[in-house]
Description:
This is GTP cyclohydrolase. It holds the Pfam family YCII. It comes from Denitromonas halophila. GO terms for molecular function: hydrolase activity. By secondary structure, the protein is an alpha+beta fold. The chain has a single domain, classed as Dimeric alpha+beta barrel (Alpha-Beta Plaits, 2-Layer Sandwich), CATH 3.30.70. Helices cover 31% and strands 32% of the residues. The chain has four helices and six strands. The protein has helices spanning 13-17, 20-32, 57-65, 68-72; strands at 2-9, 36-41, 47-53, 75-82, 86-87, 100-101. The longest helix has 13 residues, at 20-32. The two termini are 19 Å apart. The mean pLDDT is 96.
Amino acid sequence: MLYLILLSYQGPLSAVDAHLVAHRAYLARHYAASHFLLSGPREPRTGGVIMARADSRETVEAWVAEDPFHVAGVAAYEIIAWAPSQRAEGIPAEFAPQAAVA
């Protein structure tokens, strides 16, 4: 199952930036484990988005709980379970094996 993790920054960007190096290390660990597929800041910079792959929502909740942004209280999170039914030609089937090519 795919999940979208939507982060909304809480407080000034200076507070977020104080934890940015640790947050990027957290992201790197999850990319290395093939948990995260895409991530980046929102535009304008009010938060971020992570696309993750996991077997359960509980697993994603555990990952969120260890994010330095969460631990420091500088971001709020919304987790959205997502089951794509279509994908563009060229998007790897491994991202959404159940999705038909549109």
